[in-house]
Write a structure and sequence with these properties.
The complex is a heterodimer of chains A (about 375) and B (about 300). Chain A has 16 helices and two strands. Chain A is mostly helical and about 375 residues long. Classes of the chains: A mainly alpha (about 375), B mainly alpha (about 300).
Chain lengths: ~375, ~300
């Protein structure tokens, strides 16, 4: 019985129509949910957040997982995208006058962020490992500090009164498009170059990988996605300030990436979704709601001593989770593996004959 | 002396006070990097815990300055060893990135744990009687004198320990080579723990002094100060202890001078831009040796 199910599952996973079908169903749902109010606003908000987090995690995985660098700049790119798009929607294309041009400002946020990605990519030609991590950190701090010092855009107070333009179908489309883009990049010859750089930069250079070009493309693509995510995030939150995009935000994205597993698009999707849901489930009101069926004798002390403090507790639990994942589960949920549907057919056929692809963890992300 | 030179002399004194705190923290980063080639991103938060231990000792136990300092240093040292044993030791042979991420996680954990107990900034009581000496227009407070002289003493003691004692010799040996040194009978685990204990104790001392000099403390104070101290370590050449001290004095000087010339909000911008420029131009820092990459 189990074997038959397994065969069925394998067959199902290899159907070419599976992924397009899933996307089509998702798209239909994304439009139907707000239209017919299938779920309440809170669940919808969580779904939007999950979409944004998926964009952030997959794009950071490109640099931190596939390329084996350690970038801390992702929140900085988000900030650039958010500020650019917000300034455009507020001052250049007012929503009342040009409702359709909001998409243009989101795109502009991504593009400006990609340009700044170039700034991080250039030092990465010479510097790797810990020092590149420091450069990305310095970039994050400089972005934050610069935004705090420009008084025209609110300085440390930030910008409020942003129209809420981020909707579920919009986020769904961006998420699918960017994940598709990243997946295609990873399995293109540039993607092979990215993997080669992770394993051995000098050897890949000798094997005629244009390492500079690959690095520039990877950093810019990653920054572009982060910029888009930042723009969507800003028009969801309706308020941004430099403090929203600090090192804590980067750490959150890192947790998603490493929980899901490095060098795995599917892993990042799972990691981001799981993290978003976990963060919401651990809210006091949610847990109290979930456990309200318990008799009062059990519920009241539980509520008094545990559930009410969850707001603080979850902030302690989350970093602890990151440490525990690194200690006991360093490969994360799907480290170095991926959904079969994401892997191109030619690769699947090539790997079927060979032994299952073993991860080469030795030397991964190690700067010699 | 003229007005202008008195003003600048005063700034130099302020820079010395800030730099000596940075130097104590930077030493911890540099020692750990020297031995494990690992950036201990949780170090800034050990400093923060040190400041809170000082606050606890001063308010709950009503201790005077010297016992508070000793208690804080001991507590921080224990915390440092605990973090090393529980979080870093299992990852010693894992990819380098795992240890960095774990360190970030530990730091965030310490911050949020402290936040759970103290959600609001706390005021640290004065432990040192404030006396101001007037040296020809430049004022020197008793607190400044204690901070500067105590840090210098601690640094001299550390320099002696590393250069002249068997423990220091073992530390230098491990940072030189990790394959053959253990075969020579050097207890690697013990020496690494001692390194963490010393580094954390210095951070604890820095926390105490910081809490006394800038008496409003909050759980996130370790992030910025920690990063600054880390920059100081990189500027001096990470892994090199004298470099860490020099880097700290350069950084403290730059910070105070930036604030003296520009609006104070530009401080971080200038400091981090400086770091970026330095890493691109001279990645191994002022005293560090460039590592040769063999193919």
């Amino acid at each position: 019985m189990r074997a038959t199910l397994g065969v069925f599952w394998d067959r199902l996973m290899e159907q070419r129509w599976l992924l397009p079908l899933l996307v089509a169903v998702g798209l239909a749902l994304a439009f139907a949910i707000p239209q017919f109010r299938l779920v309440n606003n809170y669940v919808q908000l969580v779904m939007i957040l999950a979409g944004i987090n998926i964009i952030l995690a997959t794009s950071l995985n490109l640099v931190n997982g596939y390329m084996g660098e350690f970038s801390l700049a992702h929140a900085g790119f988000m900030a650039v995208g958010a500020y650019t798009s917000v300034l455009l929607t507020l001052h250049v294309f007012p929503v009342a006058a040009y409702p359709g041009l909001f998409h243009l400002s989101v795109l502009a946020g991504g593009l400006v962020s990609a340009l700044l990605g170039l700034l991080v990519a250039i030092p990465s030609f010479k510097v790797r490992g810990d020092y590149l991590a420091i450069i990305t950190l310095a970039f994050l701090m400089i972005v934050k500090s610069a935004l705090e010092n420009i008084d025209v855009i609110g300085g440390p107070r930030g910008i409020s009164g942003i129209p809420r333009l981020t909707t579920l179908p919009l986020v769904f489309c961006w998420t699918v498009a960017l994940v598709w883009l990243l997946r295609n990049f990873v399995y293109s010859s540039f993607g092979r170059g990215v993997l080669a750089i992770r394993e051995d930069e000098i050897a890949s250079e000798l094997m005629s990988v244009d390492t500079k070009r690959v690095k520039v493309l990877a950093f810019m693509l990653s920054a572009f996605c982060a910029g888009i995510a930042g723009a969507l995030f800003a028009h969801l939150l309706q308020f941004i300030s430099p403090r929203v995009f600090d090192i804590v935000k980067t750490t959150e994205i890192l947790i998603m990436v490493y929980l899901g597993g490095i060098a795995s698009i599917g892993g990042s999707i799972i990691g981001a979704t799981l993290y978003t849901i976990l963060l919401e489930v651990l809210r006091p009101s949610t847990v109290a709601g979930l456990l309200s069926w318990l008799p009062a004798v059990v519920f009241d002390p539980l509520n008094e001593h545990f559930i009410r403090h969850l707001g603080v507790l979850r902030m302690i639990i989350m970093p602890l989770l990151l440490v525990l994942v690194m200690l006991y589960w360093p490969r994360g949920i799907m480290g170095m593996r991926d959904f079969r549907g994401f892997i191109p057919l030619r690769d699947r056929l090539a790997h079927r004959a060979a032994t299952p692809r073993g991860p080469t963890r030795n030397g991964t992300a190690d700067s010699h | 002396m003229s007005e202008v030179s008195i003003y600048w002399l005063q700034q130099v004194l302020n820079a010395l006070q800030l730099s000596s705190i940075y130097a104590l923290i930077a030493l911890g980063y540099s020692m750990v990097y020297g031995i494990l080639t690992m950036i201990n991103f949780a170090h800034g938060d050990v400093f923060m815990v040190g400041a809170f231990l000082c606050f606890l000792a001063a308010t709950l136990l009503d201790l005077p300055f010297v016992p508070t300092l000793l208690l804080t240093m001991t507590g921080a040292a224990l915390l440092g060893v605990l973090i090393e044993r529980l979080a870093y030791k299992p990852l010693r042979n894992a990819p380098r990135v795992s240890a960095i991420i774990t360190a970030l996680g530990v730091g965030l954990f310490l911050e949020n744990l402290t936040l759970a107990f103290y959600p609001y900034p706390q005021n640290v009581p004065t432990l040192i009687e404030n006396i101001n000496w007037d040296l020809g227009g430049v004022s020197l407070s008793s607190l400044q004198l204690i901070i500067i002289s105590l840090s210098l003493t601690l640094m001299l003691v550390l320099d002696y320990v590393v250069q002249r004692t068997p423990v220091g010799m073992a530390m230098r040996a491990i940072s030189w080579d990790k394959t053959y040194v253990p075969l020579m009978g050097v207890p690697v685990d013990l020496i690494i723990s001692i390194t963490f204990a010393i580094g954390a104790a210095l951070a604890g001392a820095a926390g105490t002094m910081y809490a006394l000099a800038y008496p409003v403390i909050d759980p996130y104070m370790g992030i910025m100060v920690g990063w600054k101290a880390f920059i100081a370590a990189v500027v001096g050449g990470i892994g090199n202890m004298r470099g860490a001290m020099i880097g700290a004095f350069i950084l403290g000087g730059v910070e105070i001078m930036v604030v003296a010339v520009l609006p104070s909000t530009y401080r971080d911008l200038v400091v981090f831009s400086l770091l970026l420029a330095l890493i691109v131009i001279r990645p191994h820092g002022i005293l560090g040796q460039p590592r040769v990459q063999k193919v």
